[in-house]
Amino acid sequence: MLLVTGGGGFVMSHLVGRWLARDANARVIVLDSAPMSPVFKQFLGESIARIEWLETDVVRATSVLSKSTLDSIQYVVHGAAVTSINRYVHAEGRGNPGLSGARSSISTNIDGALCILGLAEKMPALKRLINVSSGSVYADSSTDGFALPEDRFVDPEDIYGITKYTAELFTRFAKKELGVPATSVRLSGVFGPMDRQTSARTVVCIPNAIAHGAVTGSRMRARALNAVGDFIHADDVGDAIIALLEADQINFDAYNIAAGRTVRIGQLLAIAQTLHPSFEFEESDAEPIDINYHATQRTGRWGAYALDRISADTSWQPRAVEDSFRSYVEFVAAGGTSR
After folding, report:
1. DSSP state of 168
2. Fold assignment, 2-192+231-259+303-319
C-alpha cells in the first residue's frame, strides 16, 4: 500500500496516477486537506475507485490513520506542501516579527513532515519513505560549467526554501537516528497537466504560461529569450519517485529529479509557435513582461541539475524536455485538465 500526502495536488496527482496505472490491483491512500476535486477525478478517471481519500490537514494525520491502516502501508511519499509562503507573508504582514502571516503555511511544510516521519515509526511494513523537497533549497548561483550536485550550493534564499530544507534535515535525522528508511527528492521546474492555481499553489510555471499563451493566441513578451531553466514533465517526476521507492538500495539523503540540462525560453516559445503558428512572442524588457527570467540566471537553482545519484541507484531517465513540452502543449490545446 502507498500513502501519498498532498495527493490531490499537481505533482502528486501524477505520482498517484502512474502508481495505479502500473498494476490493476494497486491501491493508494491519499491524505489531502481538500476534498477530491472534479479536476482530479477527470484526470485519474476510473482509477479513483482504487483510491482511499482521507480529507484532513497533514499535521492531523494521526487522527485519521488507524492502526490497521498503518500496518498495511509499505511506501510513503510526503508531498503535502504550501508553495506560496512568501505571497502569504506579503499579503498578511511582511516584516511581522512572528511571521504570523505564514504560520499555517510553515506548519504544513515543517510540522507536516514531522508528523509523517513520526508515523513512519508506527508502520511495521514500511519499506521506503520519500520526502518531496524542492530546488528552492539551492542558492541562486553556483559555479558555472557543470550541473548542480546535491551536496553543494545548498543555501535557501526564501521562506519556502528554508521550510523545505528544514524538512530534509528532519528526514535525514529520522533515517540516521530512528532507522526510518527515508530520503528526500529535490524537484526542478515541473510542468504538465494538473498544474493549476490553488490555495496552496499560486505560482504559474513558464511552460504552463507558454502553452496556454500559444493555445489562446496571445502575444507573449519575454525578458530574455536566452534565459534558461531545467524543466521536467510531472509524469517523469512520478516515474522517478516510483523508481526510488522500489530501488534495491538508497545510498543518499537527497536526490535531484530534473531533466538534467537546461533549455532556452526561446526554444520553448518556438516549439509552441510551430504547433500554433498564430502565436507570437518577442524579447523585451518593457512592461508588462510575461516571462521574467533573466539571461544572467544560468547557474544554481536556475541552471541544470545533476542526475548522477538517481542514475546510479535506479534505471530512471527523463524524457527530452522538447518532446514532453510538445505533448503538453497538445494536451492543453485538446482542452485537457489543467488550469
Report:
1. H
2. Rossmann fold (3.40.50)
